[in-house]
Design goal:
- The complex is a heterodimer of chains A (116) and B (110).
- Chain A is an all-beta fold and 116 residues long.
- Chain A is built from no helices and twelve strands.
- In chain A, strands 2, 5, 6, 10, 11 and 12 form a six-stranded mixed β-sheet that branches. A four-stranded antiparallel β-sheet of chain A has the order 3-9-8-7, with no helix packed on it. In chain A, strands 1-4 form a two-stranded antiparallel sheet.
- Helices cover 0% and strands 61% of the residues of chain B.
- In chain B, the strands form two sheets. In chain B, strands 2, 4, 5, 6, 9, 10 and 11 form a seven-stranded mixed β-sheet that branches. In chain B, strands 1-3-8-7 form a four-stranded antiparallel β-sheet, with no helix packed on it.
- The chains are: A mainly beta (116), B mainly beta (110).
Chain lengths: 116, 110
């Protein structure tokens, strides 16, 4: 079964500093990997996805992630944090192409705090 | 239309009530999902419908009953819930290589 592990349930950065949120995956087949953001009392918004095309994936709001097969990692980064980035971030893995109704499994989440 | 719409946004129900959650999408997605999310936890998969047929049931108690009347609609019927069922219920749809989530229904069982 596919799974993802997010290291660090809470990450705190200063405004303007680099954001790095860690995600490692476990998969017996090439995975489909996603990063979602969730603001309080809201649903999930897709930041970016990896589906076996380019290993460096650019997403919305200045976020990007790099798929590293040798390290089984898919870490999320943003060069300069903004106050509006404060939210819960989830890494997720799908066990196949999503059109057929495959299971999307989430990591435990990382709460990002941005300080002045 | 690139949204998944969930109604109601908030619901308070007693343990003897029957209520339904509704989810609608008009993106032509053929897979639809129900997830349950407790506070400070990740979403947990409950049900998956693929081409209007139930394809995955993650051992969900029978007091939760899903229904997919057509390719655009997904319902979750609730009956005899327990206080521990209070959570955010998220609907999602997918096609190709992406999932789209609704904003959820915040359910409180009293």
């Amino acid at each position: 079964a596919q799974s993802v592990t997010q290291l660090g349930s809470h990450v705190s950065v200063s405004e303007g500093a680099l954001v790095l949120l860690r995600c490692n995956y476990s998969s017996s087949v090439p995975p489909y990997l996603f990063w979602y953001v969730q603001y309080p009392n809201q649903g999930l918004q897709l930041l970016l996805k990896y589906t076996s095309a380019a290993t460096l994936v650019k997403g919305i709001n200045g976020f990007e992630a790099e798929f590293k097969k040798s390290e089984t990692s898919f870490h999320l980064t943003k060069p300069s944090a903004h106050m509006s980035d404060a939210a819960e971030y989830f890494c997720a893995v799908s066990d196949g192409l999503t059109g057929g109704g495959n299971k999307l499994t989430f990591g435990t989440g990382t709460q990002l705090k941005v300080e002045l | 239309d690139t949204e998944v719409t969930q109604t109601p946004k908030h619901l308070v129900m007693g343990m003897t009530n029957k209520k339904s959650l509704k989810c609608e999408q008009h993106m032509g997605h053929r897979a639809m999902y129900w997830y349950k999310q407790k506070a400070k936890k990740p979403p947990e998969l409950m049900f998956v419908y693929s081409y209007e047929k139930l394809s995955i049931n993650e051992s969900v108690p029978s007091r939760f009953s899903p229904e997919c009347p057509n390719s655009s609609l997904l319902n979750l019927h609730l009956h005899a819930l327990q206080p521990e069922d209070s959570a955010l219920y998220l609907c999602a749809s997918s096609q190709g290589d992406g999932y789209t989530f609704g904003s959820g229904t915040r359910l409180t069982v009293v």
